[in-house]
Specification:
Porin, 247 residues
Length: 247
């Protein structure tokens, strides 16, 4: 029942976004581009397992800067019992500078939640500098690094609540493969300045194949790693297939 309710909520959100993009495309959303991804899997037999995921991002470009919002959501059940619930949301502003505008500075805030990793919420504001290593239609590569502050609140083990400065290293690569398909990698590492807080890492590898101008088929492999998980497993992985609508 929880899974059905969750998907009803996602359907309502997607329908609302579609309506808004249609009605206000000429003014409110002018200059914005983005996409909405939905994935679902179901296994029957000895184990009844269902998993659903959603992701969305919106990007607005200015002369030499851009504003990005993106989010991910995952929910899964095994034999009618929830065994996965996590989400994250990112807001990032970056501004190009230097010769040929190859360099950029960035300011961002990441908020995430992972029920079964006992993370009620984790907030990480950060800023830094990056470089556009490659920027073409066939091959894109950005790399940046900076510093931030990580605030962690646990759902159950509140004694482990923590706040600490952290470094950040990030790279995004996107390469055209075959005729129209793309392979991409989005990797972010947060090594804390406090050794007992360890390293938090997130990697998202995606294969995207267009079905039509505004619709893609996408397969994503997501890896989340925490070197100091406070009694939980260090590594979580997800393999998700779904459709991505572009606007």
């Amino acid at each position: 029942m929880r899974m059905k309710n969750a998907w009803v909520a996602v359907a309502v959100i997607v329908a609302t976004l579609s309506f808004v993009s249609t009605v206000f495309a000429s003014n409110l959303l002018e200059g914005w581009s983005g996409d909405i991804f939905l994935g679902y899997s179901q296994t029957n037999g000895n184990t009844e397992k269902t998993a659903g995921s959603a992701a969305a991002q919106a990007l607005k470009k200015f002369d030499h800067s851009q504003l990005l919002f993106k989010g991910n959501w995952l929910y899964s059940e095994s034999n009618n019992n929830m065994d996965g619930q996590k989400w994250d949301a990112l807001g990032k502003y970056s501004m190009d500078f230097g010769r040929d505008y190859k360099w950029y500075n960035f300011y961002q805030v990441l908020v995430d939640h992972d029920y079964f990793a006992d993370i009620d919420y984790r907030v990480t504001p950060s800023f830094g500098i990056g470089h556009h290593i490659a920027a073409s239609e066939d091959w894109t590569w950005d790399a940046d690094a900076g510093v931030g502050y990580r605030i962690t609140r646990h759902r159950v083990n509140t004694a482990e609540d923590d706040e600490a400065p952290t470094a950040i290293a990030h790279t995004f690569m996107k390469k055209r493969v075959f005729d129209k398909a793309f392979l991409s990698e989005d990797l972010t590492v947060y090594p804390s300045f406090k050794s007992e807080d360890g390293v938090v890492l997130r990697s998202e590898t995606a294969f995207t194949n267009p079905l039509r101008a505004d619709l893609d088929f996408e397969i994503k492999y997501i890896l989340d790693y925490n070197s100091e998980p406070k009694g939980k497993k260090k590594t979580d992985t997800q393999l998700i297939a779904g459709l991505k609508y572009k606007f």
